[in-house]
Amino acid sequence: MANRLVVIGAGESGVGSAILAKKQGFEVWVTDAGKVKQKYKDVLTKYGILFEEGKHSEDRLLGADLVIKSPGVPDTVPLVVKLRQAGIPVISEIEFAGNYCRAKTICITGSNGKTTTTMLTYHLLKTAGLNVGLAGNVGQSFAWQVAEADYDYYVIELSSFQLDGMYAFKADIAVLLNITPDHLDRYDYQLQNYVDSKFRILQNQTPDDFFIYGADDPIIQKELKKRNIPAMGLPFGWTQAPRNGAGIEDEKLVINWKQKTFDMSIFDIALQGRHNTYNSMAAGLAGMVLNIRNEKIRESLSDFKGVEHRLERFLRVHGIEFINDSKATNVNSTWYALESMNKPIVWIAGGVDKGNDYHALKDLVKSKVKAIVCLGVDNKKIREAFADIVPDIVETQDMTDAVRSAYYLAKNGETVLLSPACASFDLFENYEDRGRQFKNAVREL
């Protein structure tokens, strides 16, 4: 049996993996090229797990029987390539934890709306009184919970990076919301590679499992024609609800499942906007499959509070509304944000560009955006994309400056929208750090 297990990355995911591995009798060692946060050091010490920081000791890594790597570490990193060449399996935390998980899994992926749909589905199951954990890209580490909790269900948000490290894992209910170009820098700038990665959510499914998917998405539609999918398909879209699936009829969200029907007015859904109605359909379908009662589904969809940093209506200052959409790290997320606004916008954008094509935003920007505040180390691409349609484009290098500039450009009754369309790593730790700095800067106005 593989006994020597090494974890690359001592964040939430890595530390959770180490705890589970220790409990399962592995000889565990954790390595992180950066600094390990004190709270994780304390946990590793408590469990008697050895770790190093500030480097990767290659000899020790190459002596492993099994390696679990953080989803943030690309497959192309020389060390990972070396491990694979040496025939050492490199897997993800989710794959590892799946070996020891007896609970039912509802796994959610897509280019946009994953976190909202995951949180909403979790809220729905919890409201219905099910014993449920929240894991993956949100909540506590999946492996950590498998080691220490005893849930009957897990709602798991999965990014393409997590799916890439999963082989034997199976979702009982797989949800694929949509696919638009994202993270192409990690996929050799080949859209098909990214699409294949997203479709890994279906691997190992059987006819007893379920596949909930966005039927209006052209990329998903094209892929379905090419693939043989054994799981029961449950589509959702903006047309009449199919016999098993969800749709919109007479401004009502309708879900059909077996002989049962659920419906509610789209105006009673807590999360407004077309993209959020899709998210609500996906969560509602998962609830129906799990035989949750209609009144519990209705209650959950109507009282859900939303997700921090995702179109979060934060504060009004002198009649100007400030909206925190820091979680919009790609063009498509920002498209949804701009599309849902109905007042003139001062748009704060920029960061680490992941091969973005801003063309898709042009019509919306032309009709809704009065000024752009660029927030990034290199804003050339944004300036070039919109210079001919937006008269005011301002350059900033920190959040305080960006928020002040936006405030001076906006008038009473207008909106300042932070929706970067880019990753945050040039100036911030992550999108949460960016969102928190935005809110702090707004408070100080």
From TrEMBL:
Q: Where in the cell is it found?
A: Cytoplasm
Q: In which pathway does it act?
A: Cell wall biogenesis; peptidoglycan biosynthesis
Keywords in alphabetical order: ATP-binding, Cell cycle, Cell division, Cell shape, Cell wall biogenesis/degradation, Cytoplasm, Ligase, Nucleotide-binding, Peptidoglycan synthesis
Q: Mur ligase central domain spans which residues? A: 108-286
Give me the residues that bind ATP, please.
Answer: G110, S111, N112, G113, K114, T115, T116
Under Enzyme Commission nomenclature, its number is 6.3.2.9
- List the protein's name: UDP-N-acetylmuramoylalanine--D-glutamate ligase
